[in-house]
Amino acid sequence: MFDSQLFRKLSLTAAVLSFLTAAACSNQPGTVAGRHSAGGAASRAAMVNPAGDSADAARQRHLVTLPKGTEITATVDQTLATGRNHWGDAFAASLARPVKVDGKTVLPQGTEVTGRVLEAKNHELKVVLASVVVDGIYCDLTTNARRPSDKDQPKHKSKKNIRRKQKDNSVLSARTRLTFKLSKAATIPAKA
Questions:
Q1: 92-109 burial string, b = 16+ CB within 10 Å, else e?
Q2: What is the distance in angstroms between the CA of the first residue and the CA of the last residue of the chain?
Q3: What angle do CA 123, 125, 128 make, to 5 degrees?
Q4: How many CA atoms lie within 13 A of 46 on its CB side?
Q5: Structural contact between residues 170 and 84, judged by C-beta atoms closer than 8 angstroms
Q6: Rg (CA), the chain
Q7: What does the alpha-carbon distance between residue 31 and residue 38 come to, in Å, rounded to a whole number?
Q8: How many CA atoms lie within 13 A of 22 on its CB side?
Q9: Is the pLDDT of residue 121 over 50?
Q10: Cα(104)–Cα(62) distance, rounded to whole angstroms?
Q11: Per-residue pLDDT tens over the stretch 134-183
């Protein structure tokens, strides 16, 4: 008798919990837009007005592929150092020059990019670009690694007074301009 009463109580409890779970889940919206989702405000507007309107047409985008080897010149927004930063630390930067494909600008100067520290040990700091932000959409990038001594230098006409010395690669100062190359093609949204 004890087992049958326990079985009934457990069955009843399970049924009630199933009913409450089903009722709670039915109140959830059908589409949830995350921080990194492609829709953002446009997805929320589409949920309100699924048919769309003329404002959505003005923001239409198509995908553009940045080929392997594309140069991306970025200015680092913060100082990075081997004593303070570690592998995987993220940093902010912005494009110092527009990125063009087939003569058309697909990423204008000033576009936000993010990078990460690839190596920070023994006075050797290496960084890569990890993503570019286009209208709030984070698009992954795979680039070659750069060191602080790889910063863009003005071209000297005269090679006098150039001393060969060990370059310090432990600190990457804010406002340093570095040119990266894509080591793998990247697809990004661009204006239609």
A1: ebebbbebeeeeeebbee
A2: 73
A3: 175
A4: 14
A5: no
A6: 26
A7: 13
A8: 6
A9: yes
A10: 14
A11: 988 899 999 999 988 877 655 555 455 545 555 677 888 999 999 999 99
DSSP annotation of 84: T
Cβ atoms of 182 and 166 within 8 Å: the answer is: no
Residue type present at position 135 = D
Q: Of how many residues is the chain composed? A: 192
Q: Are 95 and 107 in contact (CB under 8 A)?
A: yes
The span from the CA of 122 to the CA of 67, in Å, is 34
> Residue 88 has which token pair?
């995987």
For domain 61-152+170-191, give the CATH number: 2.40.128.260
- Using the structure block, give the residue that is written with the tokens 């087992």: 3
Q: What tokens were used for 64?
A: 């553009």
Q: Residue 16: helix, strand or coil by DSSP? A: helix
Query: Is the Cβ–Cβ distance between 158 and 74 less than 8 Å?
Result: no
DSSP state of 182: B
Burial-class residue 120 by CB neighbours within 10 Å (0-12, 13-18, 19+): buried
Angle CA 142–147–149, to nearest 5? 145
What's the pTM? Answer: 0.62
The helices-and-strands tally (H runs, E runs) of the chain is: 3, 12
Please list, in sequence order, all residues whose beta carbon lies within 8 angstroms of the beta carbon of residue 103, skipping any fewer than 6 positions away: none
Indicate the residue type of 181: K
